[in-house]
Protein 1
Amino acid sequence: MSRQEQMSLLITEYHSSGLTLKSFCEQKQIKMPTFHYWRNKLKEKEQGAFVPIRAALTSAEHSGVELIYPGGIRIRLDRFDLNRIHQLIHLG
């Protein structure tokens, strides 16, 4: 297990421990600045990552959708079609 994975697990463990940060770090024999370093580093990494979304099909299924590409190209679909939108987004 990499150091990054170890610290990620420790941070998750801390959040569910109910302990103060000082008590947790003492118990795990981790220096508080080290804990802060890894928490900030992993937080930055999370913020830069893509987050998967799940489309919920509702009445929007019957409304139109417009995709706008760089350069001003617009494609209008008369109804919501997730497969078609996926194909158009992944052109190229």
Protein 2
Amino acid sequence: MSLTRVNKNEKIKTTYRRLKKRKNQQLSKLCFNAVVNLFYMRYTTLFIFLKLQKLSINSNVLRCLLLEESGTTSIFNYWLKSYRLKKY
């Protein structure tokens, strides 16, 4: 094989790797934004409901809800990091 052909093949492989990495980064950002939006929507609707109904909520219940949501996001972030490490 000639040297130019080898260089051309390496350039193609490098370009493919870069595009794959960029695509995966965009996908991970999209997934993270979806989780953040879900978190925002849940708690916005919860607080609007409480405000409109003029209900009092026990601090323990709110603390449990926040812990559950933060646990979900931390598990999602851990999964996302491990997925990236397996791909690259």
Protein 3
Amino acid sequence: METSAKSSASSFAGVRRASSAWAVRDWYHAKLPGGNDPDLSSVKGAMNRDGTFSRVRRGGAWCDPGWPFRSAFRQRFEPERRADHIGFRVVGVLPGPVTF
């Protein structure tokens, strides 16, 4: 059964990476510097009112409409929270060309 749309790679080599779970990794920053792609994975953003910090939630999940699946969509998520649609993605690099 085909579960994702057939498409070519984006300019960032992203192919068919939509997932059934949100991915939470980087610390949340309300504003990112424009024009570049900084590695802010170890730099915490602004502190929340309760003294905690938030992570970035990306990717959409099985329970969401299609619009959150865009790779640019970011949402704040506290690491202490748990849900059945929040997880991690596994991405591997295959040795050689792949055709679909």
Protein 4
Amino acid sequence: MTKYALLLLIGSKCNISLLPQVQPGELSVIRLFFEWNKATLKSLASQKVASADSTLIASLDNRSWGIPLYWDIASPDSVNKKSVRYRFLDKLSSEDLPKDIYVVEANSNGAKRVIRSFVIYKNKVGHYQARLYMYFGKQWEMRKITELDTCFLSPKLNNFIAKRGLGFNSDDIIISHITGGVRKVQESEYYLGGTLAMDSGIKELIDHGY
């Protein structure tokens, strides 16, 4: 397949990024990568505007600065195919998944850091399942599929943001809703430690999912 350069217009201001040597099949992954990163950063910005807690605002500022470094991107309009997020999307693009999924990024930062994500969806008989993916040696591996007894994730993910200290999560978690045959990020909510509500119904998955 012939490689080519693509001028991609991004956003209403039509910022132009030159993406050399792009394969046609990669365009959907690149578009989703942009959408996903921007949606997560939008969550952090929205929470900051809505908060009057200076300590919480400082934490949100810290994540807004630090998370692009973890994604290994220079800006929300840049692409890095070696990014942990890009590699995850590339992995999902080759898998048979329903059109409506929730991606839960729930790294564990204990004595040994574990990079993991769950993909939650309803199977063909209407039961919730979660696929666990773990990041080893610069690649994602699907480790297991778990049947869920409870899962209450639904659109308007910001409804699951609890007052800090009342949520169950000890580490930060990001939950994203992605839909469609041509995948589109509907929303991506960032939950600081202690802010993901029990109402989400995924505590057991997060605590014992690997």
